[in-house]
Specification:
The protein is an all-alpha fold. The chain has nine helices and no strands.
Length: about 230
């Protein structure tokens, strides 16, 4: 909460985007009664990406540059335990961010259905998938490069990864690719839970699991204390 950039990524951007999608006509995805739940699905996806991927990667990269990780490496803490602790901490921060967005959505008129509860496990799975790649990125590049790449990937995924623009609305191969990205899969699963009130389809869940396993494997092999 004391870090301005982290606060911006975790709370300010998601809440601002939710208000922009629902209370103004500057960005109109859809009108009618599903406008708020569809905007909520979009914003929760943005929140997970910004918190579990961008913010985590940048923070970990600069922890390495400052020497904090090197000092941790002199303790009995193992690499696996550090990665696990980072994932748990990210899950907690993601939950706080999502809760803040949900409170704002309730305040502007959103009313959940029983099927909306499916969004909770989907959010946790999405956060784990993105966090694994955030740690992998932090292990591969130096801090300044992590800052640039993490922010760049964040913007690309938001605009062309099936988040702000649904995968079905993207042209040809780009739309098909978006459904296989973790951003598009998370957006589709949350849309099913929050807009349709139904169980998410198997494909986005499988896509998120594949990205989780791949990211966790890469992070475990590339993570460095210094």
């Amino acid at each position: 909460m004391r870090n301005g950039e982290q606060l911006l990524l975790t709370l300010v951007i998601p809440i601002g985007l939710l208000l922009g999608l629902t209370l103004t006509d500057v960005i109109v995805q859809v009108a009618g009664p599903v406008r708020i739940p569809r905007a909520l699905a979009t914003v929760l996806t943005v929140s997970v990406i910004s918190t579990a991927f961008t913010s985590l990667a940048i923070a970990t990269g600069f922890e390495r540059r400052s020497g904090a990780l090197r000092f941790l490496g002199t303790t009995p803490l193992s690499r696996g335990e550090l990665l696990g602790g980072k994932l748990l901490a990210t899950a907690a921060v993601t939950s706080i961010s999502a809760a803040a967005v949900v409170v704002v959505a309730l305040a502007i008129g959103w009313r959940p259905t029983p099927g909306s509860a499916w969004a909770i496990p989907v959010l946790l799975l999405g956060a784990a998938a993105f966090a694994s790649w955030g740690m992998a990125l932090a292990g591969l590049l130096r801090a300044e490069a992590v800052l640039a790449v993490a922010n760049g990937v964040f913007l690309v995924l938001i605009m062309f990864g099936g988040v702000v623009i649904p995968a079905a609305s993207l042209p040809g191969p780009l739309g098909a690719l978006a459904t296989l990205l973790p951003s598009g899969a998370l957006a589709d699963a949350l849309d099913a839970a929050l807009v349709q009130g139904s169980v998410p389809a198997p494909l986005p869940i499988v896509v998120l699991l594949v990205w989780l396993v791949g990211g966790a494997t890469l992070a475990a092999r590339t993570f460095r204390w210094s």
